[in-house]
Design goal:
Low-confidence stretches: none
Structural class: alpha/beta
Number of helices: 5
Helix content: 25-40%
Largest sheet: 5 strands, mixed
Mean pLDDT: 86
Distance between the termini: 28 Å
Order of helices and strands: EEHEEHHEEHEEH
Shape: globular
Strand content: 15-25%
Length: about 140
Amino acid sequence: MCSLEKCDNLFFLTLTGDNEHIFGPTLMDSIRSALAQVKSQATPGSALITTTHGKFFSNRLDLAWAQAAGAPSFRDRLSHLLDCFKPIIVDLLSLPMPTIAAVSGHAAASRFLVVAIIHDYVLMKNERCVLYMSELDIGLTLP
C-alpha cells in the first residue's frame, strides 16, 4: 500500500511496509488514487516526493498474483498488470509540479526502475542501493 501526506506545498507519497513493493493491482490502484489526489490539490509551488519503507524502492510485477489464476489465465493477468502500470507513468509525467524520487532502497526490473527515474529528480542514498535492469542479464529485448 501507500500513504499520502501533505505538509504545506509538499506532498509525500510513501510506499509503506517493509516488503519489496511488488506491483500488483491493489498497490497500483493505491498509487493512482494518491497521484489523482496530488493533482487535484496542487497549487503553485507544490512538489511531490516519493519514497518507501524497507529495502526496496520498487521491484517487480506481482507474478504470484498472475500465476494464481492458473496457466490459462496467466498471460491475461500479466497483460492486465502491464496495462495497470502504464497509467502510473502517465500520471507522474502529467503532474503540474516537480517530482522527486527519494530512493531509499533497490529499484529493480526495467519497468519499476522507471518508477524512480521518471521523476524530475532522483536522490539515492550512497550505501547498498541498486538501480538494476534484470532483463538485460537474461537477454530480453526492451521495447
